[in-house]
Amino acid sequence: MTPSARLSAAIDLLAAMEATPQRPADALANAFFRERRYIGGGDRRAISARVWRVLRHWRRLHWWIERVGGKVTPRTLVLAMMALEPEARENPQHLFTGERYAPLGLIGSESSLYAQLEGQGLLHPDMPPAVRLEVPDWLLPRLERTFGDGLEAELAAMDGEATLDLRVNLLKSDRPTARAALEGEGIHAVDTTLSPWGLRVAGRQPITSCAAFRSGLIEIQDEGSQLVVAAVGARPGMRVLDYCAGAAGKTLGMAMTMENRGHIVACDVSEPRLEGAVRRLRRAGVHNAERHLLVAGDRWARRRSGSFDRVLVDAPCTGTGTWRRNPDARLRLREQDLMELTEKQAAIMDRAAALVRPGGRMVYATCSVLREENGDQIAAFLARNPTFSLVVPDGADDDLPAGLSTDGQVSLTPRQHHTDGFFAAIMQRDAG
Ligand SMILES: C[S@@+](CC[C@H](N)C(=O)[O-])C[C@H]1O[C@@H](n2cnc3c(N)ncnc32)[C@H](O)[C@@H]1O
What range does the record give for the signal peptide (predicted)? Predict the structure, then answer.
């Protein structure tokens, strides 16, 4: 594709996103490229990169366009990005040509918008803080409460590029062997510093098509997510419950630390998600897992009350810790979503706690950085459930690196740990 044709596709993709603002951008992009199979890998990456640059600077671009009296459209968004981003010097006259496959030529108001914005830089002293920091207005005070003085630096890191992390599947391999297998396929990876099973890959690589992935030696999993598995400390012979298992990302990791011995149940309220687990469990060589679809008034759960050594609650959350991957998610997040999610999290935790055996543990986790979903939830849960208390990880009943938590709670952030934002709290039920 010519640079103009790529730009035209980026504008079309932004228009598709504008038409369905509640749909995640990556899902929309996948559908967009599926319908245009003639767009090759390199072109797809270039188109996505342009669109994601716009998504990352969404509020700032809107602010600039409106400041100079322009109208926000997919065309003016990419145009403003060209004008404001000093690294990407592009001449719009050479791209908006109106020729075959290129966007139509610039109209007068667009040329004038470009001229007014050219060389300004993305930030401006008059920008309100929430615009400058690219977060919804209502969320800023909550992020301030979470991060205090570190707010700007934490948000800057949450705005960066996500890393590509793999978890080596010890059921089938070990870290040096898996690393060598990847190297043999031209993929260079280094050991992660916090997760004992992690590899970090340089750059974007087509992992799912490599042999090491297809044969189950590795799984794609952020290092922070691996550390949630490490916090559970599932051991061979245990009865383990993954209460919000989704497509089993963490079930796979726990089955691994159980060395395929004992029993692990992956539960969820979503049948399609649980269905997604089947292939992954098979590929990873997991033999000790069962799936269970939770329904209202679940009798299955009632019969298993107080019977699990470990229960993981990987709760549905705002996902604020994953903004590096989904910059558009912060634009969609509404205050009401947070309210509904915190209610749901508390209810799920109470239900899951009933399944923990006396002396057993529950780990509550989110991929959010917000205190409302993390520490506040734990404080409220412990007040409601005095038979549970936080336990400080010691590396024996868990697989966490020393010093990561001094109070039984782990808060990971892209800035401090170079992982996605994750939270985990380890709670033990009294032996009774
Ligand atoms: C953060 S995701 C889980 C991700 C998964 N553990 C993984 O590592 O890939 C949260 C999951 O909670 C599930 N969920 C939502 N409400 C639930 C409920 N009331 N009980 C159990 N699971 C629920 C969602 O369907 C979703 O799959």
Answer: none
